[in-house]
Amino acid sequence: MKCVVFGAGTMGCGIAEVLLRSGAEVQLVDRSAELVEAGVVRLRTSLDRGVSKAKLTAEEAASCLSRVKSDSLEVSEADLVIEAVVEDLAVKKELLAPLSVRFPEAILASNTSSLSLTEMAAACTRPERVIGLHFFNPPPIMELLEVVTAEQTGQSTLDRALELARSWGKTAIVVKDMPGFASSRLGIILGMEAIRMLESGVASARDIDRAMELGYRHPMGPLKLTDLVGLDVRLAIAEHLTREIGPQFTPPPLLRRLVRAGRLGKKTGRGFYRWEGNDSYE
Ligand code: NAI
Question: What are the phi and psi torsion angles at 6 (to 5°)?
Fold first, then answer.
């Protein structure tokens, strides 16, 4: 299967790895050759980590890398396109619309965390081929795939998406195209409230996280999770849900201040925690 992943960032590289590990050929596309190259380095590092943890063999990792196409920003073939670019509806529509004309038989999927698939589909000439495939971070590890149906999504597109989810070893849930779907809508509420609690001095970041980890058996507290997702990404989702659903999602001033300061979480080395590789410090 020929897959194209747009956006060689946190999610795009992880999604590319899932596809490669299922045997697909993957073209990685970003805004420049340098960004694609950085994505390939990230992909290689993640595959090497998988080998060191015995999740795959060195031969399998080499085979995955041999199936990555990263030498062109032009797409010539596509059975499945997954976009994982910035959480901005206009950018996603602009990207998907010409692909729908060029590859009418391809499934066009968005990894959006909250935006309207129905609006994205409306921009496409084959809206029945558009669907949401919402992976979780990090995609090679997280089991859930939230499959989001736009108003226009065709049954054969949904059936194919569920088949693909199984082939990737994911457990799919099917969700209607409502802002924030089933996951982000709940996750953002918890995340924004944790930031408000930190802002008002209820407890330290570590202790707010421990409350959920040890008291509620969450594998990771909401502040650490926000660091992992990216503070900028969560801010964009919270702003969207505030507009679409209501003020309960309003981002706290502290989140805006940290984003303005470039403290975007793990990807910039600092968010609510300081990060060195995968290790976090208060
Ligand atoms: P990121 O900021 O790490 O990566 C986005 C990449 O897209 C960047 O490399 C950027 O250069 C590239 N890009 C922007 N416009 C582009 C275009 N027109 N063509 C090609 N590439 C373009 O962002 P991240 O975190 O990977 O998020 C991407 C999407 O995935 C967003 O829609 C986000 O809501 C969603 N998502 C994010 C999760 C997370 O934990 N970070 C989890 C699940 C979904």
Answer: -95, 130
Would you tell me which CATH number, out of the four given (3.40.1370.10, 3.30.70.20, 3.30.559.10, 3.40.50.720), belongs to the domain 2-176? 3.40.50.720
Whole-number Å distance between alpha carbons of 14 and 281? 24
pLDDT in tens, the chain (282 residues): 999 999 999 999 999 999 999 999 999 999 999 999 999 999 999 999 999 999 999 999 999 999 999 988 999 999 999 999 999 999 999 999 999 999 999 999 999 998 999 999 999 999 999 999 999 999 999 999 999 999 999 999 999 999 999 999 999 999 999 999 999 999 999 999 999 999 999 999 999 999 999 999 999 999 999 999 999 999 999 999 999 999 999 999 999 999 999 999 999 999 999 999 889 998
Rounded Cα distance between 196 and 202, Å, is 9
Angle value at C-alpha 88, between 233 and 270, nearest 5 degrees: 20
Residue 21 neighbours by CB under 8 Å, 6+ apart = 56, 60, 64, 140
Q: Which atom of ligand 1 is nearest to the CA of 13?
A: 26
The minimum-distance atom of ligand 1 relative to the CA of 14 is 26
Pocket probe for ligand 1: among 30, 134, 170, the residue whose CB has the most ligand atoms within 8 Å is 30
The protein residue whose alpha carbon is closest to atom 41 in ligand 1 is: 229
CATH class of the structural domain 183-271: mainly alpha
Residue 36 Cα to ligand 1 middle (Å): 13
* Gap from CA of 278 to ligand 1 centroid (Å): 20
CB within 6 Å of ligand 1 — which residues?
6-12, 29-31, 35, 84-87, 91, 95, 111-113, 134-137, 229-230, 233
First to last CA, the chain: 44
